[in-house]
Amino acid sequence: MSGILNSMYFLTLHYGKPMTNRCFDLLARAAVSSAIALGGIACVVPLAQAADSPALAAVQTDPTLAALVPEVFRQRKTITVAVNPEIAPIKFVDDDGEIAGFAPELLTAAAKVLGLKLNFAQASFDSLIPGLNANRFDVLLSLGDFPSRHGKVTFVDYLNIGQTIVATAKSALTVKSLDDLCGLQIALPRGTAPMQQATDLSARCVAQDKKAITIATYPDTNMTLLSLTNGASQVVWIDSPSASYNIEKFPNRYKALFFYYNSSYGIGFGTDENGKRFAGAVQKALLKLKQSGVYDGLIRKWGLAAKDARPDFPIDDPIH
């Protein structure tokens, strides 16, 4: 419960008012009744005016591609998509409490091509993969594609990403490589890929007679950034899209010290036959959106770098 309250505080601090009112009410009631399972519960929230976007309004269903969707999903018509909306501009909750960002608009457009509708279920990061494997969710909106996850998730990759080391705008620290993190207090979102990397790096620091890294983890990216604001950490280690967005939005609070590429964001599907076939259908829908200019238009709309695009939408093929 305290994690939820702290996340609400972060959003109020940054934006002047809480942005997750409806889901916060649901999560708070569930926390009080101890009803949270698999590390979090899902809260279904609408997509922010995606249907009103001129680019998405022009998207039409392609009957040939729609026929590629496995029968189990075609019968449902509405697909449950899990999302942890904490990485603006990729996926976040806007001022009206609605899911917004590049990924939800892209997947909504792909769903229109396939004749499907989506329900976005807000969930914690660490509940995404367990929820998919337990059939609570049909699709995961967006998460990092790493080989270690391929046994549990089939990914359709759509954007190259990296990691950014972020400090306060007034910090005097210099980070030219990850080895410069030795002896620092760092913070990371819980359950993310760099957690193990940070632990291994700290052990290497000690082996080289340097000070160990003090590592703290937080429930989400918002709370991780808050640790900088309140002085609990010296630097944070977060996904580059979120870092770039927050640095641009709050240049007096944050600055980037170091960046490196490490993976791709992918839309997640099951690893069974239906999941793989569904991934293939969505891949073909995305290719059509690239051909029609919708994908490139969304890249521009959300301020993403064209060089980070993955216009071939490979399956289980992150950059390394």
Question: Which keywords apply here?
Answer:
320 residues; alpha/beta; D-Maltodextrin-Binding Protein, domain 2; 2 domains; nine-stranded mixed β-sheet; three-stranded antiparallel β-sheet; disordered N terminus
User: What's the quaternary structure here?
Assistant: single chain
> Largest sheet, described in full?
9 strands, mixed
Domains, number = 2
Structural class: alpha/beta
**Strand tally, please?**
12
Shape, per Cα inertia axes? elongated
Spatial separation of the terminal alpha carbons: 37 Å
Q: Under the CATH scheme, which architecture of the largest domain would be assigned?
A: 3-Layer(aba) Sandwich
What is the name of the CATH class of the largest domain? Alpha Beta
Work out the helicity level.
Answer: 25-40%
CATH topology of the largest domain: D-Maltodextrin-Binding Protein, domain 2
Specify Rg, calculated over alpha carbons: 19 Å
Mean pLDDT: 86
Q: In percent, how much strand structure appears in the residues? A: 15-25%
Count of helical regions: 12
Q: Which series of helices and strands comes N to C?
A: HHEHHHEEEEHEHEEEHEHEHEHH
Poorly predicted sequence stretches spanning 5 or more consecutive residues: 1-22, 24-41
> How are the strands ordered across the major sheet?
1-6-2-7-12-8-11-9-10
Q: What's the CATH H-level superfamily name of the largest domain?
A: Periplasmic binding protein-like II
